[in-house]
Amino acid sequence: xxxxxxxxxxxxxxxxxxxxxxxxxxxxxxxxxxxxxxxxxxxxxxxxxxxxxxxxxxxxxxxxxxxxxxxxxxxxxxxxxxxxxxxxxxxxxxxxxxxxxxxxxxxxxxxxxxxxxxxxxxxxxxxxxxxxxxxxxxxxxxxxxxxxxxxxxxxxxxxxxxxxxxxxxxxxxxxxxxxxxxxxxxxxxxxxxxxxxxxxxxxxxxxxxxxxxxxxxxxxxxxxxxxxxxxxxxxxxxxxxxxxxxxxxxxxxxxxxxxxxxxxxxxxxxxxxxxxxxxxxxxxxxxxxxxxxxxxxxxxxxxxxxxxxxxxxxxxxxxxxxxxxxxxxxxxxxxxxxxxxxxxxxxxxxxxxxxxxxxxxxxxxxxxxxxxxxxxxxxxxxxxxxxxxxxxxxxxxxxxxxxxxxxxxxxxxxxxxxxxxxxxxxxxxxxxxxxxxxxxxxxxxxxxxxxxxxxxxxxxxxxxxxxxxxxxxxxxxxxxxxxxxxxxxxxxxxxxxxxxxxxxxxxxxxxxxxxxxxxxxxxxxxxxxxxxxxxxxxxxxxxxxxxxxxxxxxxxxxxxxxxxxxxxxxxxxxxxxxxxxxxxxxxxxxxxxxxxxxxxxxxxxxxxxxxxxxxxxxxxxxxxxxxxxxxxxxxxxxxxxxxxxxxxxxxxxxxxxxxxxxxxxxxxxxxxxxxxxxxxxxxxxxxxxxxxxxxxxxxxxxxxxxxxxxxxxxxxxxxxxxxxxxxxxxxxxxxxxxxxxxxxxxxxxxxxxxxxxxxxxxxxxxxxxxxxxxxxxxxxxxxxxxxxxxxxxxxxxxxxxxxxxxxxxxxxxxx
Length: 815
Fold this sequence. Notes:
Elements: E1 3-6, E2 11-17, E3 33-36, H1 42-48, E4 63-72, E5 77-83, E6 90-94, E7 97-102, E8 109-115, E9 118-125, H2 129-132, E10 178-182, E11 187-197, E12 203-212, E13 218-222, E14 225-228, E15 230-231, E16 237-243, E17 260-266, E18 269-276, E19 281-284, E20 293-296, E21 299-301, E22 303-308, H3 320-332, E23 337-340, H4 349-358, E24 361-365, H5 378-394, E25 401-405, H6 410-416, H7 421-424, H8 427-440, E26 445-447, E27 465-467, H9 479-482, E28 488-491, H10 500-506, H11 515-518, H12 531-543, H13 547-553, H14 555-578, E29 586-589, H15 612-620, E30 624-630, E31 636-642, E32 648-658, E33 662-673, E34 677-682, H16 683-687, E35 706-713, E36 719-725, E37 739-746, E38 749-756, E39 760-767, E40 770-772, E41 777-779, E42 785-791, E43 802-805, E44 813-814
Parallel strand pairs: 22-23, 22-29, 23-24, 24-25, 25-26, 27-28, 28-29
Antiparallel strand pairs: 1-10, 2-3, 2-4, 4-9, 5-8, 5-10, 6-7, 6-9, 11-12, 12-16, 13-14, 13-17, 15-16, 17-18, 19-20, 20-21, 30-31, 31-34, 32-33, 32-35, 35-36, 37-38, 38-42, 39-41, 39-43, 40-42, 43-44
Helix pairs in contact: 3-4, 5-8, 12-14, 13-14, 14-15
């Protein structure tokens, strides 16, 4: 098998004027050299040297950057140098000779060289700005969001080129590993792994590859089963293993993401090929043929999650440790799908491996967005095919890859400018990319673009939508139903305020109108509003405040309501979309993580700490769930969901509270809910008689302020889910409650026991060094609520101390 050695460590970086040096030997002898991490970026090297500030970045696309390394002590002979990611206009020099030129950040490049034992390797990243000024085929439309327009001609990330969306940090450098490959005896190449379930539920594994060398016995092994390797008519080696009683791979919301190692045995010597999972993916358009649903192993999946941005906008890392914090927090929030959008960059194989392990489906856009790309240029098309093959090869056998998409908002951009459909679609998304997808990953769903479908591609009532009715377009919460959403590949963007600890450490400025604060708030280029204005709209809508006045007169309280409101909005929206009878089959919030500390789109801040909205989504994403929907004069519907593999014995309790204390009416029912099923009851079925639960008939003064639905395990009495309905709005139910607290400890660590004398809204816990298992939650009088305190840097042997806040009180309670 081939031997791979990563060329990392002792690299140096030299900065020159654009075009000043033609090859490494022309670099000035006294040129200042900086230590440079590889894989890494120019911005990362400069930041380590104290010469780059990510909060106030300097431009990097106007100069040349030289990466230099010595390769010494290596055995002389032929090797291949593989460059997994060069951003972007790069020239590779081996012993002062140019051996490779690359102009595609997204495709791996390789070159054959012969080592002498004392060699020099150099990579020059040429200034991008001259390339951006180059003339290409006339564009039929121009997006406003991305600058400059010349980016459509170059295969580089759009990160750093979207003013108002992300920091203007230019991505330059060898941001993915560089490896040296020796072709030893028995080399394997062009590996393809495909795994699925047959009609009887057996696992079927097909592997094919090229092989150079001699071997008397080649066998493929998986899950204790083996099969011989055969030679196909095309000369490739192939093997098929059929595995009875295989455990399928499931998204984490619906089961276990079971994985199996795949091994090639060469003359009794095992050689790992990776891991895979067995699952089938199917597209379900719905009964009317206008929907977009995903089925895994024959089971409809409600996809919920977020759009990925980047693990670090400066470093652009691709290692397991770089991804793990974000993806584990995503998994802990109940996310079962991550979308990598076309404005970002392709992630590494480690990203897919983690998603495989965590049971997170991946919706992968190809890196195309908004532009009219020059697909009539054969050279451009060849680069597109190369990058697509590299991505799909890196994800071979990955069960988490679920959807491949031709890109983001090209169809929407053209149609919003009034162009007819013949301009939206074209060979790029309708022929080239689907051909590559079908060739290497025929097991996943391919869609041409996002959004896509309907009378216009951006209408959310057919196909795939980008839904911002609730959100940027300031529609009322009821629009979540009225829009008849089918699937939102992105939605619900707000300027989510981080926890105070993050602000104190990284953005200690007056909130909202300080220029440093506003610089971190996302906005659409050219718009007269930003996403803080959107959050303020819903703060006023849900709580009745004038946001500007509250911010001016009581900025601390303004921030508390701002933290609470976006969680309330996302919970309300997902409650509508997940209820039985909804047309929606999935929704992904915009976005998973921030790129700088501040009130960004992310549900996780740039330090890796969950924001308050993360907890709201965690509640909204539970597999076993109770939901409430206001049906007006038809009363209040109670929906119970069970997405798990087991039958659940549940107790459903419903109470209408007056003054947050006294039950005006209540009822309960024990139910047996089958796997993958749901149940809808009216409140009247639980109460046994008429009661104006939604206060729709208004016969006299209201009899209650809040309705509380509580779902508990019938055997253990563990609380599984709660839901709330405010018939006259949240402020009518705003009370100051007395909260009793008790710190307890068991074998699993510390926990906090909470009881309330009356209904309390948006309780916030702050324990330094701990992440509460729930936060920013409502608490009704009755049984105690138990919150686990998960250590995050704290010494678990020391008794935790913290504070408890509630929206109905201005006083923090010490614990």
